[in-house]
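Researcher: Last one for today. Full complex below.
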Amino acid sequence: MGKDTRSRIVEAAMELFWLKGYTSTSIADILSRSQVNSGSLYHFFPGKQDVLLAVLEAYRDGIRAMLLEPAWEGVSDPVERVFALLAFYRRAIVETECQYGCPIGSLALELHDADPIVRERLAENFTNWVDAVEECFRAADHRFIEGTDYRGLAELALNVMEGGVMQARTYRDVAHFDRAVGQYRTFVERMMAHEAA
Amino acid sequence: MGKDTRSRIVEAAMELFWLKGYTSTSIADILSRSQVNSGSLYHFFPGKQDVLLAVLEAYRDGIRAMLLEPAWEGVSDPVERVFALLAFYRRAIVETECQYGCPIGSLALELHDADPIVRERLAENFTNWVDAVEECFRAADHRFIEGTDYRGLAELALNVMEGGVMQARTYRDVAHFDRAVGQYRTFVERMMAHEAA
DNA sequence: GTCTATAAAAGGATAGAC
DNA sequence: GTCTATCCTTTTATAGAC
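Model: Here's the assembly. Have a good evening.
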């Protein structure tokens, strides 16, 4: 049994927005990829932006199943989970021959006059990501030095990931991502300075 | 005496690509902003992408005059120059009510299938930026601990800036940028750990 | 809910006179 | 080098039968 029409649309749009960006993806692209007719799409969505909202909600609601769980498979140490998450992005970079872009980050920068509701969905995605990383660090709080800023550390992980992805794609060289993560690991380890090497 | 036509086109395109992005800026937008007619634009440029290349070259060639010199005005300490550069972006964020996006970073993420020549120009811009920051650190190399990775530290500055700008814009809150820079400052200071507070 | 056909506008680019 | 007019394609979205 095939998936329902609405899901096919969201799935196709998710992939296309990721591959080509929002503006460069036409409704016709979405229709052809999802094998849906114009009338059906506009039956479910008032317009293109509403498809985008549905996509952002799918990312938001799927962060565990699509991102965290696969990234953390077999990794139980909470601090290593942070680096496993980053390694998951590395895998995506390598698998796409350095064309990978974080779908949320790319949309956040592409959409210059994003509707407040769109920005809100983008922000939710960032927040959930940072929350997950912060939780990891807090789960290991006994290993960090006094006064460690867990939120700041988690936000920095996001910046490192987004910046690393941006550079790896621009240079078509995953080494840029690796160096970013390397610097970040150094920093995190300094925050656990009392831990044995 | 007015500027020549070609310059007006590049200037208008530079501003529009920054404000709206490449794909969302139409040739008509550029024509109307630069007060140039279609025929003139296509006299100087084969097509839209060539206007983009000229814009990226203008950023590249203008990094000192447009970015480094204003950012470093009155700042001579090389390490503080790095933070003055970041503070320059902060000013842009505040002045645009958190709508600022780094023009290079935004284009790097917006253009999914960028022509190699376009990517090359983007990469040049990143490289020059990172070079400038690395030079600052190296000019103060006696203050850093043995084995400090200056290139890595400079690349991290770029990631912090790009990530901080991305978050500040998405959340419409410069505090995200500030926290990113704060984390970065902590890291840099750890690399100068022997220096007196 | 789905289908085809099509409207209405905007897009990049060109022609050819001046 | 600049001007106006325009071609052709793509785009988002709608209409109305089934």
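DSSP finds ten helices and no strands in chain A. The first helix of chain A runs from residue 5 to 20.
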